[in-house]
Every structure is written in structure tokens, then in C-alpha cells.
Amino acid sequence: MKPVKNVNVSDDYKEDDYQDLLHETIAVIESSRVIIAKQVNTAVMSSHWEIGRLLEERKLDSKHGDNIVKRLSVDLKKRFPNMGVSPRNLWDMKRFYLHYYQEDIKLRQIVAVLPWGHNLLLMDYKLSAEHVLFYANEIISKGLARIVIRANQCQSVGDFIPINYELCIMN
After folding, report:
1. What are the CA-CA distances from residue 3 to residues 6, 9, 26 (Å)?
2. Cα atoms in the Cβ-side hemisphere of radius 13 Å centred on 157
3. Distance separating alpha carbons of residues 85 and 54, to the nearest angstrom
4. Rounded CA gap, 56 and 61, in Å?
5. Please, is 135 exposed, middle or buried when counting C-beta atoms within 10 Å of its C-beta (0-12, 13-18, 19+)?
6. What one-character-per-residue DSSP string does 71-104 give?
7. Do 139 and 118 touch, CB atoms closer than 8 A?
8. CB-based contact 55:94 (threshold 8 Å)
9. pTM above 0.85, yes or no
10. pLDDT, tens only, 42-66
11. Which of the chain's ends, N or C, has fewer CB atoms near its CB within 10 Å?
12. What residues contact 38, with CB distance under 8 A and at least 6 apart?
């Protein structure tokens, strides 16, 4: 990348006005980047859902479909080398589909916007639909990291008792 010259603002335009313009422009770009990332994530989650549905419709399971899923993984990696299509991830896509396909549309819509790693974690905990909905809303509204969810889940064994997320971050 070429070094940028130090350009002075013209005499008839105040430095403070320029700084305001710069900060507002940066905010627009950052906002657009967040929107794009969310749209990409939603598209990825939709593809995971559809791949899981395809595996389920073909009645592939770990006993009878292991070699098929391994071959599918190899062929998909050739075509999409930067996409997570390992056999384990393909099985997780099927698990994702099976976990939510009969659930309420509200729950399916909210997990569709979560990052893949968050969904895997929520499925691993085998939470009720009500609890998944709670966590998903917390993730979205507070931008929680997976480690915070782990801390919260570890402290809420037995009856579901949401705890203070700020304390989870500090502990």
C-alpha cells in the first residue's frame, strides 16, 4: 500500500469540521461492514440448514452414511477450499437441522442469525427451546462471546438461573 501524504485542510474549512466529517464517514463504513457481516452470516447459516436438511432427507447417519459424508467432504473441499466442510462439520449441519426444524419459527429465525460456533455450543448443552431462545436473545442484544455463555451455563446447572453476564466476563 502506498504511503499517504499528509494533506492539510484548506483555510476556509475548519479542522474540527473536517474531523467531524471524518468520524461520520468512518461510522457509515463501519455500520455497513457490520450489516454485510450479518448478511453473510445469515447466508452461511441458511446453507448449513439446507445441507443438514439434505443429509437428513437422504437418511444418512453415522452408521450407514459415514463414507458418503467423508467423500462429500473431500469433494466439497476441492470446490470450496476455504469453507468448513469437514465430515464433523457436515454432521453438525445435520444436527443443527434436526435440532431446530420442528421448533417454533421465532426460535428458528433467531438461531439463524447467530454465528455457527454459538449454535454448536447451544446444541451441545442440550437446552430446552425456551433456554436457547433466552441465550440467543442475550447473545444478540449484548454481543456475548462463547466463553461467557460457557461460564453462565456452568453456573446454572440444575434449574435454569440466568446470572449477571458482567460477572462472567470478569471471572
Report:
1. 9, 18, 19
2. 3
3. 14
4. 8
5. buried
6. HHHHHHHHH-TTS---HHHHHHHHHHHHHHTTS-
7. yes
8. yes
9. no
10. 999 999 999 999 999 998 887 778 9
11. N
12. 113
Provide the residue type at 161 as one letter. I
Task: Please report where in the chains the cell 464433523 appears, as a residue.
Answer: 88
Q: Which residue has the cell 447466508?
A: 43
Q: Classify residue 164 by its DSSP letter.
A: -
- Whole-angstrom distance, CA of residue 108 vs CA of residue 63: 28
Span of 32-41, 57-66, 139-148 with lowest mean pLDDT: 139-148
Under DSSP, the state recorded for 115 is -
Handedness of CA 138, 143, 146, 150 (dihedral sign): negative
- Residues present in the chain in total: 171
CA 62 to chain centre: 26
118: closest CA among 56, 45, 51?
A: 45
C-alpha cell at 45: 447459516
pLDDT tens for 105-114 read 999 999 999 9
Residues 127, 53, 38: CA angle, nearest 5 degrees: 70
